[in-house]
Design the sequence.
């Protein structure tokens, strides 16, 4: 049934199976729904200082990575902080949830508990992604394998026509995951299946004509009621910045490398709170020297660029961390960049991208 044959095992990093990057082992900590308490933020800041490179790196799935983890003890710290409730399931706790929806956030917590309680689901590929969208269309456009969008069930971003209430959302998403395990062959993602109908055919619910939903990705930056939407530059938080956020209270890490801080936040120049800040439209992989495959220090080059349309800088053709939504593709070469496939010298990047923004 799979439309592509995977010839290697899924090597998606976690806490126990880290990735050997150029700057040392990389550990990925899953935050289902992005929810993180103040105490957990402090625990991650301490782990980054004591075991890693002193920073927390946000991912495009609303998770946190620690880089350069060369000293032991991370799993014990995470367990004590409540960030590793099921070692067997730690790589499959991939759950997005609308940060501004109480319903989606509560369902994400319930889904995480239910997922970890099913032993067979520990066998899901580490790239399989759940999403719970409260109706804004924010996380529904982030490439989830199965998404509940305020009643609608989407597979690989496409509406199936199946409608289930919030009361049945968790069991529906888990039913899809179980069916995927039975049918996947060598596939890692639902989008790789030739036919997705068997994934939902036994799930009770109402049916409707499938429709194309609008998407509205992103977290508003700046004040949001009593909370604040912030964006760390390139999604990198120093341990000191993480402690400032913890001092403000609990938070939600989003798949747009931003954070919803649920309390009064102390000002910091590295935490963007201005919705008009030019750098908000720019993302980048880690680049050199952190990645041996990168052909350039993409973050240093990206920092020299002013206001642009949405842009992602990538150091190699893997394009790690690229946004799910439409963006300008900036790919490093040996002596410059390909901007949407057209060669541009480093010195011409700012002008070229500024022109892109006026087209």
Sequence:
């Amino acid at each position: 049934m799979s439309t592509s044959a995977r010839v290697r095992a899924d090597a998606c990093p976690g806490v126990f199976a880290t990735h050997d990057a150029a700057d040392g082992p990389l550990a990925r900590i899953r935050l289902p729904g992005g929810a993180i308490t103040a105490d957990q933020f402090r625990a991650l800041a301490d782990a980054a200082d004591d075991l890693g490179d002193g920073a927390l790196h946000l991912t495009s799935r609303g998770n946190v990575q620690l880089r350069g983890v060369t000293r032991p003890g991370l799993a014990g710290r995470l367990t004590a902080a409540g960030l590793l409730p099921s070692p067997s399931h730690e790589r499959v706790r991939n759950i997005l949830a609308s940060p501004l929806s109480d319903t989606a956030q509560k369902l994400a917590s319930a889904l995480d508990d239910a997922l970890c309680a099913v032993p067979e689901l520990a066998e899901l590929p580490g790239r399989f992604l759940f999403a719970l969208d409260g109706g804004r269309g924010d996380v529904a456009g982030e490439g989830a394998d199965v998404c509940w969008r305020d009643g609608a069930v989407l597979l690989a971003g496409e509406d199936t026509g199946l409608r289930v209430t919030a009361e049945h959302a968790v069991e529906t998403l888990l039913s899809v995951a179980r069916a995927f395990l039975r049918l996947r062959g060598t596939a890692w993602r639902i989008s790789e299946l030739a036919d997705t109908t068997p994934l939902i055919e036994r799930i009770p619910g109402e049916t409707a004509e499938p429709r194309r939903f609008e998407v509205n990705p992103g977290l508003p930056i700046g004040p949001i009621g009593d909370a604040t939407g912030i964006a760390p530059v390139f999604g990198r938080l120093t341990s000191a910045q993480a402690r400032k956020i913890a001092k403000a209270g609990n938070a939600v890490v989003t798949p747009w490398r931003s954070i919803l801080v649920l309390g009064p936040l102390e000002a910091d120049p590295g935490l963007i709170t201005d919705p008009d800040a030019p750098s908000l439209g720019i993302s980048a992989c880690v680049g050199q020297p952190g990645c041996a495959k990168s052909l350039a220090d993409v973050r240093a080059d990206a920092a020299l660029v002013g206001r642009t349309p949405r842009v992602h800088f990538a150091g190699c053709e893997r394009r790690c961390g690229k946004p799910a939504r439409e963006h300008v593709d900036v790919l490093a070469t040996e002596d410059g960049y390909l901007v949407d496939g057209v060669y541009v010298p480093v010195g011409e990047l700012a002008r070229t991208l500024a022109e892109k923004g006026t087209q």
In short: Residues 102-116 form the longest helix (15 residues). Residues 18 and 135 are 35 Å apart (CA to CA).
